[in-house]
Design a protein that fits this description.
Helix 4 packs parallel to helix 8. This protein is about 75% helix and about 5% strand. The protein is mainly alpha-helical. Strands 2-1-3 form a three-stranded mixed beta sheet.
């Protein structure tokens, strides 16, 4: 009997994804803009992967993690952007319940994997600067592979928890997802039961998978800065810190926008335009900017690119 009641409650089989605005007309200008961003993201990250694969000088722990970051960024963009492009081009906003939940779970997998990967990259920089003589020994190939596997395992664990949490939600009324992709917060807003349990789970997950890696990253950079201040020459201090500048920039962009996107709507359940703009920053813009930031700030990547293009 309880099973029948539950099935009657969960009567929503199709959601409407609002997108960036409530316009019912195709938005060709925005479509072209986000198409260019998506193509730049895919091409830029494939370029980084190719350079790291082909150039022996880039076969180091730092670039091993960067290659994994590029893989995550390509997939992360491919989870959210194609549906947004479809909405902008055709104004067709419907998505099946199963497709919506699938998008949510895959997004949660890769967004959390990136959080922990950024923490692993911070640890790599900490070891390189604070323990330079034993760096290659500490960051051996086995250690690097284990760290990356751990990042993916944390992402998978988060996905399983979110799947368990979402399975307790019932959707029996409004079916309009006030976002440009399916995520936990807008679905919590639509749920007619099971919301308190899912809220508690999601809040704990945000603390563990968001604030946990961020705290570790900040602690690593505190140790790095303390070590850099011991260097006597200003040129030496600048050169040492420049090796961390790219990663620190990526972390700032990713975490500031990501935490705002989750914590603000979690407290108000209001997916206003500001929240959507910030969500665009960490889900779409940051994956595009990562290859640019690392290319411009790393001499080894620039040299590898010049070599690949035949430029002396």
């Amino acid at each position: 009997m309880e099973k029948v009641v539950r099935e009657n409650k969960s009567s929503v089989s199709v959601f409407l994804v609002v997108g960036l605005s409530e316009s019912e007309e195709p938005q060709l200008l925005l479509f072209l803009m986000f198409l260019c961003i998506y193509l730049t993201t895919v091409i830029g990250n494939i370029m980084i992967l190719s350079l790291i694969s082909l150039d022996q000088r880039l076969h180091t722990p730092m670039y091993f993690f960067l290659a994994n970051l590029s893989i995550i960024d390509i997939i992360l963009s491919s989870i959210t952007v194609p549906k947004l492009l479809s909405i902008l081009l055709t104004a067709q906003k419907t998505i099946l319940y199963s497709e919506c939940v699938t998008q949510l779970l895959f997004f949660q997998l890769f967004v959390v994997a990136e959080c922990y990967l950024l923490a692993a990259m911070a640890y790599d920089r900490y070891v390189a600067i604070c323990f330079p003589l034993t760096y290659t020994l500490i960051m051996s190939r086995v250690v690097r592979i284990r760290l990356v596997i751990a990042c993916w395992a944390c992402g998978l664990g988060n996905t399983l928890v979110q799947a368990f949490s979402i399975s307790h939600l019932d959707f029996c009324g409004p079916n309009t997802v006030d976002h440009f992709f399916c995520d936990v917060t807008p679905l919590l807003k639509l749920s007619c039961s099971g919301k308190k349990f899912a809220e508690a789970i999601f809040f704990i997950v945000v603390l563990i998978t968001g604030m946990g890696p961020l705290t570790f990253i900040l602690a690593s950079y505190a140790r790095i800065i303390a070590e850099i201040t011991k260097i006597s020459s200003s040129r030496g201090r600048f050169k040492t810190f420049s090796t961390c500048a790219s990663h620190f920039t990526v972390v700032a962009l990713y975490y500031v926008s990501g935490l705002f996107s989750y914590i603000w709507p979690l407290s108000t359940y209001a997916m206003d335009k500001d929240v959507k703009v910030v969500a665009v920053l960490y889900t779409i813009m940051t994956p595009m900017l990562n290859p640019i930031i690392y290319s411009l700030r790393n001499r080894e990547v620039v040299q590898a690119l010049r070599k690949a293009l035949g430029i002396k």
